[in-house]
C-alpha cells in the first residue's frame, strides 16, 4: 500500500470546454479521494514556479501565457499509487500519442493545450500542492467522517 497525494489541474482550455465535471468523475470512479479543489486564476509567478523544470524550453513563455490565460481548476487527490495511476489516466503529453480511454486521448487535440496537468513524482506533487494550496485547507481522507463511505 502506497497512499500518495497528487496535484491535478484542469487547464484553462479544459475549464472553457466544460470538462471539470468529466474529470472529477473519472477520479471519483477510480476510487480516489478529493482533498481540496478551487477554481482560480494563476499569476505568472505561480505558473513559472509550477513549471520551473521547463524553464529552459523554447515553449516556456507560451506555456506560462496559456496557464495564466483563464481560470484553472486546481485539485488535490489522494489514493493508492495515485501519482503513477493518474499519469496513466491522463495519457501522454502529445495528442498523437495519448491513447483512447485516457483523458487526453479522449479530449485533447493540441500538445500545448492538453486539458489537464498531473504531478509526475512525489517531489513535484509536494511542491505543486504547496504552490496552490494552504496546507491547513487540505482535508484528510483519514478523517473519521471523510470519505463518507468505504470504497
Ligand atoms: P506533461 O504535462 O505530460 O507532464 P511536460 O511536463 O513535459 O508534460 O510539459 C508540461 C506542459 O508543457 C505540457 O502539458 C504541455 C506543454 N508542452 C510540453 N511539450 C511541449 C512542446 N513540445 N510544445 C508546446 N508545449 C509543450
Ligand atoms: Mg509534467
From TrEMBL:
Active site, renumbered: 117 (pros-phosphohistidine intermediate)
GO-annotated molecular function: ATP binding; metal ion binding; nucleoside diphosphate kinase activity
One GO-annotated biological process of the protein: UTP biosynthetic process
SMART domains reported for this sequence: NDK (SM00562)
Cofactor annotation: Mg(2+)
Principal subcellular localisation of the protein: cytoplasm
Enzyme class: transferase
Protein localization: Cytoplasm
Family, per entry: Belongs to the NDK family.
Oligomeric form and interacting partners: Homotetramer.
Protein name as annotated: Nucleoside diphosphate kinase
Organism expressing this protein natively: Metabacillus sediminilitoris
Lineage of the species this protein comes from: Bacteria, Bacillati, Bacillota, Bacilli, Bacillales
Amino acid at each position: 500500500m502506497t497512499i500518495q497525494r497528487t496535484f491535478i489541474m484542469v487547464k484553462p482550455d479544459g475549464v472553457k470546454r466544460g470538462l471539470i465535471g468529466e474529470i472529477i468523475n473519472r477520479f471519483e470512479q477510480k476510487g480516489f479521494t478529493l482533498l481540496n479543489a478551487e477554481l482560480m486564476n494563476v499569476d505568472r509567478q505561480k505558473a513559472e514556479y509550477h513549471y520551473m523544470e521547463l524553464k529552459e524550453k523554447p515553449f516556456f513563455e507560451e506555456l506560462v501565457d496559456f496557464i495564466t490565460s483563464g481560470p484553472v481548476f486546481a485539485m488535490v487527490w489522494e489514493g493508492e499509487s495515485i501519482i503513477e495511476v493518474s499519469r496513466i489516466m491522463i495519457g501522454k503529453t502529445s495528442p498523437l500519442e495519448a491513447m483512447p480511454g485516457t483523458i487526453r486521448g479522449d479530449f485533447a487535440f493540441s500538445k500545448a493545450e492538453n486539458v489537464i496537468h498531473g504531478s509526475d513524482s512525489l517531489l513535484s506533487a509536494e511542491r505543486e500542492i504547496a504552490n496552490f494550496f494552504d496546507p491547513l485547507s487540505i482535508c484528510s481522507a483519514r478523517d473519521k467522517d471523510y470519505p463518507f463511505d468505504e470504497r
